[in-house]
Amino acid sequence: MELFTNQVLAGIATGAIYACMALAVVMIYQAIDHLNFAQGEMAMFSTFVAWQMMQWGIPYWGAFALTLIFSFVGGIVIERALFKPLAKAPVLTHVAGFIALFAIINSVAGLTWDFTIKQFPSPFGSSPFLGSQLISTHQAGMIGVTIILLVLLFIFFRYTRVGLAMRAAASMPESARLVGINTSWMIALGWGMAAAIGSIAGMLIAPVVFLEPNMMGGVLIYGFAAAVVGGLTSPLGAVIGGFLVGVFENLVGTYIPGVGNELKLPIALALIITVLVVKPNGLFGRAIVKRV
Amino acid sequence: MTAMLHVKDLRAYYGQVQALHGLEFELQEGSLTTLLGANGAGKTTTLRSICNMIRSTGSIEFEGKKLDNKSTESIVRLGIAHVPQGRGTFTTMTVEENLQLGAISRKDTKAIGDDIERMYAHFPVLKQRHTQQAGTLSGGEQQMLAVARALMLRPRLMLLDEPSFGLAPLIVRDLFKILGKINREDKVSILVVEQNAQLALELADKAYVIETGRIVMSGTADEIANNEDVRKSYLGY
Amino acid sequence: MSTVQDVSAAPAVAAVPKKAMALGPLASLIILALLIVTPLFVKNFIIFQMTMWLIYAIAVLALNILTGASGQFSLGQSAFYALGAYTSAILMEHVGVNYALTLPVAGLVCFIAGFLFGLPALRLSGIYLALATFALAVAMPQLLKLGVFEHWTGGVQGLVVTKPDAPEILASLGLKVSQDMWLYFFTLAVTILIYILSVNLLKSRSGRAMMAIRDNEIAASAMGVDVSLYKTLAFGVSAGITGVAGGLGAIAVQFVAPDGYTIQLAIALFLGMVVGGVGWLPGSLAGAAFIVFVPNIAEHVSKGLSGAVFGVILIIIIFLLPNGARQLAYLAQGLIGKLRKH
């Protein structure tokens, strides 16, 4: 039993990573109706920017804030320069655009900061949390930040006019224009916010997985998975999905014999597909009720 | 009275196909004007051109401002609310959120709450359903929601595209009564496009008849209603 | 004035008229002639690259049938490619079957696998289907490494495949054909066969049914099209063709190993389809050229930044030709039409 609780706790700790990334995924999905395959790379790049600023002697929280601003602006710039001109292109062309962005960011980061792994500091330290060997203060801090982000996003989308306008622009662009919403800027804003949230995820994940250009590959896949399991339209679902995927992955690794690290990912993904076959809108996604 | 909306030499295109051939009409401030015509005559296209939702040439002036090169959203912000065909309901959002979206471009945020209450007074059924997902409303309820959403803009001019479409006759009567009331009491000018000519002519003060992208007849609603040709082609008696 | 897209949900793939999915006879003959003559004048290594080009073209074509014709979207084609490659390799090395005969088997095995995979995938659409197929692509290399199958698959090490010689009958006729050259022409023959079969499939009743589903699933089912059957069938056919490409790939590379069939291959095939033009079968050839040659060019331009160069080239292509090579072909067609009039 103790093994079980321990594994669940450890799963929640890794789940926080996925939850954080899944939030960024949901954010961009709300804004543009696509999954951005370059999201992880954008987060990685932001994290390197933060690292570079700290190398230049800027204290952690200063670098953190500057990175947020940099990422927000960067997200908007990427949208304006790359994806706004593609607005009328077919969906699959967008996906190709994401892949191109992925290749470019990964390659530029590799050339600028090389592929050796770097230490990234944690603002929460790494001592055991409340005496538990399984969960460190950093991981606890990460869970805390994820939950705060979730609450902020919830308030933003539910209770602010900009949040409402963003949801409207994403779900029914033409109707949104007819009530006077500038849908094009809503998309740009969505990119900015997603990039900023992604950068938080990156800075929280980097102390755990170490900083290097390929650090987000696996994390993003789990982030997608978490977002999809939770339902792409629900930030809360994304966070719960993240924790679920983390816990499940850990339990499978512990209890099913012969499942090494290599098979963890396929099995987690298989679970996700099973969930989707049973509940095609994810566990918490809102089913769109339509009169035909 | 001065003309609020001036449309001159309007030509619109769907790809290579020309749908409007030099349409001209105007709408007086405070009036309820109707555009009549058969399927495919260009009624919807005219409304879409006013809001710049389709490629068109010619001149459209609203209260002395040219609309030609403005984006849809900035035209809306001038006070033109458009209730499109198919109603444009935000199906995944609640009824109340739909109403808030109607007012999303307004600066006077304090008065929005009161306006929502006013809409509930006009359309009590919306109040009953205010937390319900808008996509689950019946067709008639959605049409009421669409009108209410448009009014939330506090528009100077409201464009309505086939409000009677797909609704039961009784509901259509109710809806048109409310439209008349809004026109008189709230001083909202209305341009309504209809296939149900009889009803539209009862309500309107001015009418135009469109055929294949051109205005073929214009006059007061009474004149048009008593015209022999219109009676035969559109009123059926 | 600006134009605004219609409110109704557009299908993921712009509808391609049935006729426009293939090339005219003249253009086909010119391309065929080039494909036959070019290898006679180039070095063996280039012939090998051209072989890989054709093989990828088959795989891209398979994806085109799935996405372009039936509107489903897959990031998991590498899994079927791997399955086909292993089927051929195991049959050749463990059972001693002739290489040419392994291809239909690879196709059949993959057809069945694709059909079975298509069944649960039926419930998924769009992004969810992409994720499911993606999972398949990620899982495949790990499955191939499993100890249980090691006797057959060779585990992490993989299997070495013998390269076939040209048939002796050619030598007795006095023609000296190198292994690479022979394999190229063999692949070309298979490519042409698959291309003709695919064009005919899309023209047939089944093809029309698939396209009806792509354009409007509800309307298609109302017209009496068995939506589930044709969607799974499209998956099966696409997987089967990919399997044949995989088998050919194994023979050409003379080697199969789990890490040769990662998600990167699936992404490459997807890019090939987009660059070639979704739903336009001849575009597969252009798309495959992109997959095979552009990374080389990028590497050539800058070693350190090859990824960035690749990305920039890709962006330039999708900016100029958001509908892929198909757009270029239409432009050319329009231009020729104009010239003829004058």
Automatic annotation (TrEMBL), chain A:
Family: Belongs to the binding-protein-dependent transport system permease family. LivHM subfamily.
Localization, UniProt: Cell membrane
Domain of life from the UniProt record: Bacteria
GO cellular component: a single term: plasma membrane
InterPro entries per record: ABC_transp_permease, BCAA_transport_permease
Entry membrane topology: Multi-pass membrane protein
Protein name: Branched-chain amino acid ABC transporter permease
Sample GO molecular function, one term: transmembrane transporter activity
Organism (species): Tardiphaga robiniae
One Pfam family this sequence matches: BPD_transp_2
Keywords: Amino-acid transport, Cell membrane, Membrane, Transmembrane, Transmembrane helix, Transport
GO aspect biological process, one term: amino acid transport
UniProtKB/TrEMBL annotation, chain B:
Keyword Transport appears in the UniProt entry: yes
Membrane-spanning parts: none
Annotated InterPro entries: AAA+_ATPase, ABC_transporter-like_ATP-bd, ABC_transporter-like_CS, BCAA_Transport_ATP-bd_LivF, P-loop_NTPase
SUPFAM superfamilies: P-loop containing nucleoside triphosphate hydrolases
Annotated GO biological process: L-amino acid transport
Entry keyword annotation includes Nucleotide-binding: yes
GO MF term list: ATP binding; ATP hydrolysis activity; branched-chain amino acid transmembrane transporter activity
UniProtKB keywords: Amino-acid transport, ATP-binding, Nucleotide-binding, Transport
Function: Involved in beta-(1-->2)glucan export. Transmembrane domains (TMD) form a pore in the inner membrane and the ATP-binding domain (NBD) is responsible for energy generation.
Similarity-based family: Belongs to the ABC transporter superfamily.
Protein name: ABC transporter ATP-binding protein
Organism expressing this protein natively: Tardiphaga robiniae
UniProtKB/TrEMBL annotation, chain C:
Lineage top rank: taxon: Bacteria
Keywords attached to this entry: Cell membrane, Membrane, Transmembrane, Transmembrane helix
UniProt KW DNA-binding keyword: no
Pfam families in the cross-refs: BPD_transp_2
Any one of the GO CC terms: plasma membrane
Keyword Transmembrane included in the entry's annotation: yes
Entry membrane topology: Multi-pass membrane protein
InterPro entries (alphabetical): ABC_transp_permease, LivM-like
Main location as per UniProt: membrane
Localization (cell): Cell membrane
GO MF: branched-chain amino acid transmembrane transporter activity
Protein name in the entry: Branched-chain amino acid ABC transporter permease
Species assigned in the record: Tardiphaga robiniae
